[in-house]
User: Fold these one by one.
Assistant:
Number 1:
Amino acid sequence: MRNVLPSILRICPALLLAMGAAAADVAIDLAQSTVRFAGTSTFHDFTGTAKLVSGALHLDPAAASGSVEADAASMTTADEGRDERMHNFVMDVAAFPRVRFELTGWKPTADGGEATGTWTMKGVGKPVSFPVKLAGGHATCSIPLNIRDWGIRTPRLVFITVGDIVTVDLDLVIAKAP
């Protein structure tokens, strides 16, 4: 029974929220969670990762709050030249070190919920809404973002042009907050 209890405690917040039950404070395991992003360019698609630096959520249909932040300087695509241009020119990480989602709304659904809030990158905050799946101690979502909406010029290098849409995939390992 002791071995089963931690699993049940990890899953309970997700189950309660999916059923529309009372609010829950959710802690995010920053070390186990992942942030991935993907985009397209003229010659090939690219993928990358970033590190989460903070995160806690209050999933309450009446008063949702909380945030998730990633370190913009940790964004990497496994191509040093591309990463340097992304950090210095595209994202300007010296001036804007964080990418942040601030939760302002939560609507429970059968398999998770609809999150609403403000996505801020490169100093610009814009409203976003996206579905979140809750299962097995994970909150997962895929968020397509048009980088031009945040004042980010479409990166170009000679004949290579990056597409306007970058998709951010979050896999947050969650547990009921202490």
Note: The radius of gyration is 17 Å.
Number 2:
Amino acid sequence: MIIVCEDSGVDALAPMTTGRLAYAIQCGGYQLYDLLLELSRKIASIPGETGQLFGIARPYLHAIQDADYSSVQSLQSESLNASARPTLLINARLLPVMSYVEALVKLVQTTSGDAQSSSGVVMCGDQVAAVVRPPWSIEQIRKAGYDGISDLMQSASSFSKIELKLEVLRWPHEVIAHHMSLLASNLEYRIKLGGYEQLQDGLFVAPGVKLGDYLVIDAKSGPIVIDRDAQVGPYTLLRGPVYMGPKCKILEHAAIKDAVSLGHTTKIGGEVEASIVEPYSNKQHHGFLGHSYLGSWINLGAGTCNSDLKNTYGTVNMEYPAGKATTGMQFLGCVMGNYSKTAINTGIFTGKVIGACSMMYGFVTSNVPSFVNYARLFGQVATLPPEVMVATQARMFNRRQVKQRPCDVQLIHDMYRATQEERDRCTDLLSL
């Protein structure tokens, strides 16, 4: 039995985690959810292990977890033996490195599951990455719940230390940095799993892919993997490593290069470099996106560009809702939460953090809280009511033939309440 746990550290990953489970963040072409499914399958083949997958998440994301990540079951299931002990507790902020799967399976195979003395912990600095054969019963973990799981997991730091290098995400910029270093190796893992045809050196396509004429393919730095039913328009540059998810569409004359990962059902045009775009987001017109992260259901208007390099060529420091962070990164663009939009010719300055459900016009010279109409260039910044975003969500979903569910509507309202402190800290900005 595996339990994936969101702890208090997920708050520092906002706005990535404002409307998204931490294990559903895309990094290196995978979500941790993908790793968990593979881990579950392999542990289930070990005698005496079930491989069942359970989750502890922020309460307002329970309905989304049940609807969209059904393989992660609720710990409240009456069929569970309350006195049983899990095999693994995994931090939901664990980096999705697919080579971790074999390492964790080996730990399960080589440890005893009965005595407390067999409990072990894998640390990442002062953070608990995973607990092997924890001594707590299902009932104890249930009682801890989301509010108490951080303390329970941290108590495992006194357990026997297991020498295994597992990385845990702490800040949003780390997602971008790890993505760039991981993508090539994670794509090699994906290729080994099969299901792709190699059309030429470094270019792998799944069934249903449509490629336009006069493509420029450069796989010297990593493979280009295009998943099922994706489309690439003519006169496009693809410079690896690149991952295109199912039903992704690249428009003609685009340049997709140097560690780009595109989620399913995205539409992409212009120039994109070293960036992550989550499912259902659009950047289909000219403009530059570099060293950035876009959540889901985002739309960048024509001509939108972001800067990923300071004029001083110095390293970029970030200011997130949870605090300030020194990144050590020279190239760093923007981090944008779910459902945010830009108007035509919007310019986003280096290292800006844009919350969920915000609308931007003109130049984005400061961080943007969630649920804000941001037109600072014109002296207009105001709170955006959640009812407006619910109506916008319905129109977007209808365009993509996606049904708007009660849990989707409720999530908008929950995100609004969860981000109130962001707006409270920006009273001067919102008084414009």
Note: The chain has a mean pLDDT of 95.
Number 3:
Amino acid sequence: MELRKINKNDAANQWEYTTSLPEDENGLTNPFHGVTYEEYLKKVLPLIISYEHPKDMPDWFVPETYYYLWDGDCIVGEFRIRHCLTEALRSGAGHIGYSIRKESRGKGYGTAGLKLTIQIAREIVPEDEIYLRVKKDNIASQKVMLNNGAYFAYEDEEHYFMRIRK
């Protein structure tokens, strides 16, 4: 298993994974659901790559890097690291968002992928803890976070807000 940063060489696999994700599932939004491969190559891929070193973005935008979890020649998950937090992110989505391919769930990919992502995030994020958010009814994702050393910081009606010490 390996975690690879989004790149042009893996465009076809990344496109297939990205466009197959629902528009919104368990709080992870995907504005690129269903785009054509041509659109992905010309617009989406350069845009997502630019998120790591953003230019001309709104004030609320923070640098974000996309990574894909590979098992052999297949992408089984996507992990996003937001490099720092705004107040909205601090009390919202946090540093890391992720998804696992539906048919690959329940096989340990979430736990393994988050572990690799946390190793990278520890070098990037300036905060003392890595912030995560999970829907209360997403038990599998809660277990993934807990398996990676997360603790429950607080909750609201819909979510648990988890933290992992750096």
Note: The chain has one domain: 2-128.
